[in-house]
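Reminder to self: tokens first, then the designed residues, so the page reads top to bottom the way the pipeline ran.
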């Protein structure tokens, strides 16, 4: 089916994200650092900030349970800027080529509202697409059905003619369940091949 709308995820598709970057310095022992991520600042904890929970509330919740780790719990937000050190130039080039070719491009991301404001300032290319849905601003996260429907309604997208690009298989599956076409992002070269296969001209 013809692709009329292209929707990019951001983290690990257009912008690098890795909490190990600051925490390899803050918790040098690899086993201790992994324990901290598995038991304290977990992915499940962090995703709730993407859903809209305030950092102060998130920190207070963990500090109550893990008072001995209070400093590193606070360090997660303090050092967030180090976790997103650069954009993927080859992915951004593909984004730019799509836009320059006249394609309808939007962004759909799981991202905390306050840190995304910083990301906008640091990565100006995020302003080029027609619009962005930020999970932390609307209180919904991928792969929940509601966020895909919200994006469709916000930007007048026909999901059957939309291609979603995400690095998470769960989020790709969520998009497909919402009636979208979707591909799993692994690298820019593979994505460019996906575009060619789907007759998306660059």
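Designed residues (202 positions):
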């Amino acid at each position: 089916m013809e692709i009329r709308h292209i929707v990019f995820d951001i983290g690990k598709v257009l912008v690098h994200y890795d909490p190990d970057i600051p925490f390899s310095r803050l918790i040098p022992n690899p086993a201790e650092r992994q324990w901290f991520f598995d038991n304290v600042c977990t992915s499940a904890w962090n995703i709730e900030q993407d859903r809209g929970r305030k950092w102060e509330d998130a920190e207070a919740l963990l500090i109550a349970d893990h008072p001995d780790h209070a400093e590193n719990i606070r360090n997660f937000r303090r050092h967030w800027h180090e976790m997103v050190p650069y954009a993927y130039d080859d992915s951004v080039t593909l984004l730019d080529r799509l836009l320059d070719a006249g394609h309808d491009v939007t962004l759909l991301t799981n991202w905390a509202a306050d840190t995304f404001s910083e990301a906008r300032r640091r990565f100006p290319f995020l302003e080029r697409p027609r619009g962005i849905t930020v999970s932390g601003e609307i209180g919904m996260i991928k792969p929940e059905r509601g966020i895909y429907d919200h994006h469709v309604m916000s930007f007048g997208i026909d999901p059957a003619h939309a291609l979603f690009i995400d690095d998470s298989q769960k989020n790709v599956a969520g998009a497909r369940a919402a009636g979208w076409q979707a591909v799993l992002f692994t690298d820019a070269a593979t994505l460019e091949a996906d575009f060619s296969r789907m007759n998306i001209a660059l």
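The chain has a mean pLDDT of 98.
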